[in-house]
Amino acid sequence: MNKNLKRQYIRYGTKKERKDAVDTEAFAVHLLTIADSYRTSDIHILPEQKHYDIYFRLNGQMEKQYYLDRDEGTRIISYFKFLSNMDVGEKRRPQSGGMTFQLSDKAIDCRFSTISNYQLQESLVIRLLKQKEEENQSPGIFFTHEWNKLEQLVQSKAGLLLFSGPVDSGKTTSMYHLIKNRTSGEKQQVITVEDPVEIEEKTFLQTQVNETAGVTYEHLLKSSLRHHPDVIIVGEIRDEETARMVIRGALTGHLIVASIHAKNAAGVIARMQELGVSTSLLKQTLIGVAFQTLLPLYCALCEANCQTYCTHYARGRKRLALFEVMSAKELESITENKGSEREPESILVKREFNHLLEKVFMNGFINEKTYKRYYISNA
Ligand SMILES: [Zn+2]
Questions:
Q1: pLDDT for 300-318, tens place per residue?
Q2: Burial label, 146 (beta-carbon count in 10 A; 0-12, 13-18, 19+)
Q3: Ligand 1 midpoint to CA 308 (Å)
Q4: What is the 199 CA–ligand 1 centroid distance (Å)?
Q5: Helix (H) or strand (E) holding 305
Q6: Who's near 96: CB < 8 A, 6+ residues apart?
Q7: TM spans, by residue (predicted)?
Q8: Do residues 190 and 233 lie in contact, with contact meaning Cβ atoms separated by under 8 Å?
Q9: CATH class, range 144-374
Q10: Ion ligand 1 residue ranges (Cβ < 5 Å)
């Protein structure tokens, strides 16, 4: 950590307090080093009645890693709050912050957020942003058919390609990979608009939202369009304004690849309409929709989803991506049917995603619990 910050942090207090501060720092470094080596996406420091538990999210599941007594827990949370410029004394209001943490051999970018329960016990979540080395790893996939379809779609000169899927389903990795493949061997300008930038990619112009500095999605998108890039990657379509600009970009000859929150591929259409995009504009711009999930692999050695320490599936390969991809033609049947009956779209979705999920299950790649968990029900 930054030497000045460290000095500032341990300068005050009694001898015991100073010792605790040093212990806290050592533990913080240890915690982040271990978390990074496990490739966890986030660390949760959660209060229990009389102590704190620390969990890592590994392969999509929360795994308990550490037990801290109440003082230790409070101290480590205060420490991270201090480092990431949050108000250490403030416990009522949820806060967020970020910082780059220097470990012995590398720097990792972290995002922090706190929230308190009604008893004013704070919990802290640390998000570890993806590191450089992971970016070169192609996403592990179940079916090449869908992936090939996506590779074809990103060859389009212009249009809108939308991704959806749960949090931590690898959407960014997929978008980056597809665009990187498209642009390999020739100079094309790719601009990304994200909050935050998760994967570093030298060949892209990566921009990041900074609300406190007044740099919003809208601003960045507007200036990106003025740059006339070949491709724009948009981290998330969150509101009507971004939806409108994404459509404008697609209409004016850019390929826009964006993610949007929706329960399934068909839900993407509904969400865009909800954000004020008309069916005819969608028809003119949308070239495809992908819905992506990462499924934990069943391991015969673990007799469960493959665990962190098991070597049967390599770390970072304990989950594979399942895609549902719909091209413009397939999407047409959805947009056509929209407004009259909801029935046809749900039948379509059921056949597509659930059918593939079932195939994965029947082949023994995932267990029944996973199958049931990811099955998209009609409700
Ligand atoms: Zn295993």
A1: 899 999 888 888 888 778 8
A2: buried
A3: 8
A4: 28
A5: strand 304-305
A6: 86, 111, 112, 113, 114
A7: none
A8: yes
A9: alpha beta
A10: 299, 301-302, 306, 310, 312
- Which segments in the chain show pLDDT lower than 70? 1-14, 18, 21-22, 130-138, 334-351, 378-379
Sole residue written with tokens 């101290």: 75
Residues in the chain, overall count: 379
322 half-sphere exposure, CB direction, 13 A CA radius: 25
Residue range(s) occupied by CATH 3.40.50.300 in the chain: 144-374
Distance 42 CA to ligand 1 centre (A): 21
- What is the Cα 83 distance to its own chain's centre? 23
Apex 112 CA angle, 111 and 114, nearest 5: 155
Sole residue written with tokens 């990304």:
192
Taking the centre of ligand 1 as the mean of its atom positions, its distance from the CA of residue 198, in whole angstroms, is 28
Start-end of CATH 3.30.450.90 domains in the chain: 24-129
Fold classified for 24-129: Beta-Lactamase (3.30.450)
**What is the CA(58)–ligand 1 centre distance, in A?**
13
Question: Which residue, among 37, 28, 20, has the nearest Cα to 2 in the 3D structure?
Answer: 28
- Contact between 275 and 239 (Cβ < 8 Å): yes
Say what the pTM is: 0.74
Instruction: Output the six-digit token pair for 131.
Output: 């590191």
Please, which residues have CB within 8 angstroms of residue 224's CB and are 6 or more apart in sequence?
191, 193, 207, 232, 249
Classify burial at 327, counting beta carbons within 10 Å of its beta carbon; exposed 0-12, middle 13-18, buried 19 or more.
middle
Q: Ligand 1 center to residue 30 CA distance, Å?
A: 25
- Reading the block at residue 348, the tokens are 């379509």
Residue type, 243: A
Q: Does residue 51 contact residue 35 with C-beta atoms inside 8 Å?
A: no
